[in-house]
Amino acid sequence: MRHFGHLAPEVRQRLFHQEPREFTADSPARLLAAALGATLYSPATRPRLADDILKQAAQGVVSMVLCLEDSIDDADVEHGEENLVRHFADLAARPGAPLPLLFIRVRAPGQIPDLVRRLGPSARLLSGFVLPKFTGERGLPFLEALESAESDGGRRLFAMPVLESPELLYRESRVETLEGIFRAVDKHRDRVLALRLGVTDFCSSYGLRRAPDMTAYDVQVVASVIADVVNMLGRADGTGFTVTGPVWEYFRAPERMFKPQLRQSPFLEVQAVELRERLIEHAMDGLLREISLDQANGLLGKTCIHPSHVLPVHALSVVSHEEYSDAADILRPERGGGGVMRSAYTNKMNEVKPHRAWAERTLLRAEAFGVARADVGFVDLLAAGIPG
Question: Less Cβ crowding at N or C end of the chain, within 10 Å?
Answer without folding.
Answer: C
